[in-house]
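Morning F.,

Quick status update on the modeling queue. The single chain you submitted on Monday has been processed. Sequence for confirmation:
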Amino acid sequence: MVKNTPIDSTIVSRKIAESGIKEVGKASIREIKRLIDQIENESGEKFIRMEMGIPGLPPNHFGVEAQIEALQNGVAAIYPDIQGIPIVKTEMARFVKNFLNIEVNPDGCIPTVGSMQGSFASYLLLARIYEKRNTTLFIDPGFPVHKMQHRVLDLKFETFDVYNFRGEALREKLESYFSKGHIHSVIYSNPNNPSWICFTEKELQIIGELATKYDIVVMEDLAYFAMDFRKDYSHPAQAPFQPSVANYTDNYILFISSSKAFSYAGERIGMLVISDVLYNRKFENLLKYYVSDAFGYSMVFGTIYPLSSGTSHSTQYALYGILKAANEGKFNFVEEVKIYGEKAKEMKRLFTENGFNIVYDKDENEPIADGFYFTFSYPGMTGAELLNELVYYGISAISLAITGSDRIEGIRACTSLVNKSQFGDLEFRLKTFHQNHS
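Structure tokens below.
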């Protein structure tokens, strides 16, 4: 039993027992959130909350103003086009050109109910494009809910942790899966949730080349768009641009979120961007499930339509307002979110000075960026064991074990909800933990 902890151990132990969670270190994100809420309510002590990847900044005012205007104009009474309203599709295509330097037709730019609807729809469709390919490959670690979506849909997937396969080693690892002939698509996030690693141009080129060679669709989750703060991706139509596999293959789908980069999480609006080649491509096997064999048509009218009949009308206007401002250089969305990197730098210092280690620490030979997430461990403990104890010290996070990571000693920390005013509490709690375990 832990002793002399910042949070009353009796309360913590009782709330864990009442929660029904057998082991905190193996609980889901939402289970941990609920548990910590209950401990905070009874103890009166505020935790260092690092379990949820929730934006911690006010919503973008360009979006708010455009959405209010749209509501006042009566759009709430009108169904939006399933494929998205024309003006937002045009701004999405402009945004992709301005910040990724990729040309894409507005037809393939589809607003979705958050990026998660975009991924859900993509999984549904990609599982049906080939008769004999039935598996998605996850380049892990990754967002746990993407695997949950596969399980709900009863779709097959395989995974590997990229930690030991950076650089040229990634080529052989991917070919070991692709060459078997059962993979139809691959997914990863960049910057990565939970590790915050970022693929290099060499690695993106490898992924793209192999996707073309084996005719595999790459799903690139850009939930943390341009948030690798080591380079400035904030200026429209000006290099450097957000790195993307779209530079190296025509077989791609991009998921671009409004939640983190634009701080517009509550309205559930994301962007599904399909390459022109893939959007217009025909797959005979789709006729078993849809009225058309065209990929793009089947995505919009065969998949998005039955899922939600489109995306919130007023929120599409919010997205239009945000993208228009960014495209015209009136809204530097990267500058707005740099605070996450500033907090990560200081938080990582506090952890490492008190006996903790950073788990995913490099992109090939370069130290990883400071950003929305970082990963840490403590000598002699698994991630699950560490998390089991940290709750007694008023610190919450999630174990890497639920993200597909092989680094079972690790924990993911999110910087967004930690206020700089809490750094003193964090330092005290880390010091106390280190004293009790060193």
